[in-house]
Amino acid sequence: MFLVETTLPYVSRCNNKQHYSFTNSTNPPHSAFLPYGRTFFHRPTGRFCDGRLVIDFLAEALGFSFLPPFYGSKSGKWEKFQQGANFAVAGATALSSSFLAEQGIHSVATNISLGVEVNSFKHLLPSICSSSSNCKELLRNSLIVMGEIGGNDYNHAFMQGENIENIQQLVPLVVDIISSSINELIELGAMTFLVPGTFPIGCSPSLLTTFHGSERDQYDPLTGCLTWLNRFSQHHNGLLRKELENIRSLHPQINIIYVDYYKAAMRFYHSPKQFGFKETLKACCGIGGLYNYDPLIFCGYPQLKQCCDDPSSYISWDGIHYTEAANNWLAHTVFEESMSTIPSLGSLCPSSSVNKLRILYPMFGV
């Protein structure tokens, strides 16, 4: 279930910041190259961003160091996961790659899916707790951040030309695998979940480029986003919220906090100046076209090293992922809003016990 931000690196500590070493030098991801990481780390860290991700800001707010990634870690170095782990992999999907391939949907980034991540977590668990009862106690005192997951299932399909009717049939399947994964973790002893919805994909430079030339009435006149794609995001989020209510009714003792990434991100597009953004729909690191995005020339590879002068004035970093500035606002919104939910993150993680909290973070498909 859980995963790292990237597919290849292992992590080592250096002045409380993470430095990633890429274990496959013959075919590293484009996040292994500058200008990725330029804003905060001043070097590539494997994050698909100019700096920190939402989970980095959340970890900092709760008093933790950045979470070490599970994938790519050297065998026998399990002690680094005693305070938490990140199982996210860029490009990961909720549904298995084999199932998606049967539907004609392929991922060139990774074959990691939610089921693979669940099994990876099970593999890690015995190494950080000595018995079944200890593992249950560890999970009882853990915050598990489920995603965002599912976005790549849809993005791959849209980018590869699948029609909307076929892609809509994936939504209940994606929600079901998220639900079953949460239930599986509950059986292991997990008690507290932060579950984000998906982002407004109609505002993504990559999909705006893919569907460039759509009829004028398909664009939101206030934001320039494609309304039908955003309705798709809301459809996923609506089904997910209903399923989370079902889980709550079956497990009333379990704490599930839904995080409305869609609502939080749409604030950027409706009131960009309020958040310091000057460019809402163009990629900072990109080239060509109305949205500064070319699906054949990725940010970071030799043919595309340049980027905008001020990433903090852009919402989108590379046409697919957000800038550190946008991630910072998302994390701030998540943290503030989760304090007013029932249950609230504050009530579940009071400051007096924050150092006892482990964060197990499945940042899927970042």
TrEMBL record:
Family under the similarity heading: Belongs to the 'GDSL' lipolytic enzyme family.
InterPro entries from the UniProt entry: GDSL (IPR001087), SGNH_hydro_sf (IPR036514), SGNH_plant_lipase-like (IPR035669)
Name of the featured protein: SGNH hydrolase-type esterase domain-containing protein
UniProt source species: Gossypium darwinii
GO molecular function: hydrolase activity, acting on ester bonds
Pfam families given in the database record: Lipase_GDSL
Keywords associated with the record: Glycoprotein, Hydrolase, Signal
